[in-house]
Design brief:
With 394 residues, the chain is of the alpha+beta class. The protein has helices spanning 5-8, 18-25, 47-53, 57-60, 75-87, 132-167, 219-233, 242-252, 346-356, 362-377; strands at residues 29-34, 42-45, 91-98, 104-115, 121-130, 180-187, 195-203, 206-214, 263-271, 276-282, 288-290, 297-298, 316-320, 326-330, 386-393. It is built from 10 helices and 15 strands. A hairpin with a 4-residue loop joins strand 9 (263-271) and strand 10 (276-282). The longest helix is centred in the middle third of the chain and has 36 residues, at 132-167. Bound molecules: flavin mononucleotide.
């Protein structure tokens, strides 16, 4: 081991050479084994080794270092070490070792072969670092991650099951009634959505049509949207007069500070015989009308969302639809996605796309619209639920 003379020279008062002082001062354990003798006996250990293992140099010199091993030492790591020593290669392994007092510690052991001038391996130098703290932290992190993964999988399974239940409330097929055709699109941003829509035949060629959007999204919104859907389908509420429907829902689902939920609603009655659509818009997105003989129109107006104000009024409006007219009801998740510059897709673009696709079927128009929204958003992962219910008078 060559080096500057100062490393080997003893101090004035017989102090150990600088090299020896450096070897003692280092926190790491250093052990040298003689590779020419059977079983690689130790011929040197520094003070760091003594501090780390609790064994004195006298107790260990002449022995193979395996006395540090015990029941918790990983056989795989040992095999890797053995193979490297046999091949006289450098190796680093993580071993669980035991001090003289029986306490365990994680030892990151690096063993390097040392050759003589003829290239023969004469010694092995082992450097032992106590990595117990970081290994325990890593192990704790791994086990926390495993627990998290298990919990996440359970949660996902639950959410997927809940989403399947929720989707059974969506109309699987929209009613096929003379005089009108429907198409729809539903894209929850999480598995569960706060959006819901439906078309319910009332008899006599009249259809109750609604679309709603519960504030927020995810599980809490989905719970209320499912409750509302059941409530609206169960015949518990008169759907014949849209304003009364909104008022009744406003009473039944009044503001509760514990949940702080409310919802926007557009509900109406379509008379397929006359084309009259009487509806109330409660804080919901303005419907878009594509009449055959007129420019596309956004029909503004309406009352506040349902569940915010106890005495809210919900005015009714009436549209007279003629064959070929198309009406689009949608939720704000469709117009609110931002592009990379932070600009919203917006209502104007929505109207322009629907107008452009006027010659296509209702379904194709909706699919193209969604494509444009996703392209605008830059990713299919939209930030809010998207629902669209379109009808065409025939
Ligand atoms: C220089 C040197 C240092 C070593 N240091 C350790 C050590 O700190 N802890 C340990 O468990 N094994 C250590 N070993 C490994 C064992 O001495 C032995 O080589 C290993 O257990 C594989 O041999 P075996 O299967 O005959 O036991 C060291 C080996 C050498 C050559």
């Amino acid at each position: 081991m060559a080096g500057p003379d100062i490393l080997r020279r003893e101090g004035a008062a017989g102090e150990p050479a600088l090299k020896d002082r450096a070897l003692s001062a280092t926190a790491e354990g250093i052990a040298i084994a003689d590779a020419r003798l059977p079983d690689n006996p130790l011929i040197y250990v520094n003070s760091g080794f003594e501090r780390l293992t609790g064994y004195s140099a006298q107790e260990v010199l002449g022995r193979n270092c395996r006395f540090l091993q015990g029941a918790g030492t990983d056989p795989e790591a040992l095999e890797k070490l053995r193979a490297a020593l046999r091949a006289r290669r450098e190796v680093t392994v993580l071993l669980f070792n035991y001090r003289k007092d029986g306490t365990g510690f994680w030892n990151r052991l690096a063993v390097t072969p040392v050759c003589d001038a003829a290239g023969e391996v004469t010694h092995f130098i082992g450097v032992q670092s106590d990595v117990t703290e970081e290994t325990n932290i890593r192990e704790a992190l791994k086990s926390a991650n495993r627990e998290l993964e298990t919990a996440y999988r359970a949660l996902r399974t639950d959410l997927e099951a809940a989403a399947r239940v929720q989707q059974t409330f969506l109309p699987s097929t929209l009613p096929e009634t003379a005089g009108v055709r429907f198409a729809s699109l539903y894209r929850p941003c999480a598995d569960l959505a706060g959006d819901m829509f439906n078309v319910l035949p009332l008899g006599g060629g009249r259809l109750a049509v609604y679309i709603l959007d519960v504030s927020g999204h995810g599980v809490a919104s989905a719970l209320l949207s499912v409750t509302l859907t059941r409530f609206l389908s169960a015949g518990e509420i008169d759907l014949g007069r849209p304003a009364d429907t909104a008022r009744a829902l406003n009473r039944k689902f009044a503001w509760d500070p514990r949940t702080a939920q409310y919802f926007s609603l557009l509900c109406g009655i379509l008379d397929t015989g006359t084309g009259e659509f009487r509806y109330t818009c409660a804080g919901h997105c303005d419907p878009v009308l594509l009449a055959v003989d007129a420019e596309p129109a956004v029909i503004a107006g309406g009352g506040p969302p349902v569940g915010l104000f106890p005495n809210a009024q919900f005015p009714e409006s009436t549209l007279h639809l003629r064959p070929g007219d198309r009406l689009y009801l949608y939720t704000d998740g469709l117009i609110e996605p931002d592009n990379a510059q932070g600009r919203e897709f917006g209502l104007d673009r929505l109207v322009a796309v629907l107008h452009r696709e006027r010659g296509e079927s209702l379904e194709t128009g909706l699919a193209r619209l969604l494509e444009e929204v996703v392209a605008w958003n830059g990713s299919p992962a939209l930030a809010d639920d998207v629902s669209l219910l379109a009808l065409e008078m025939t």
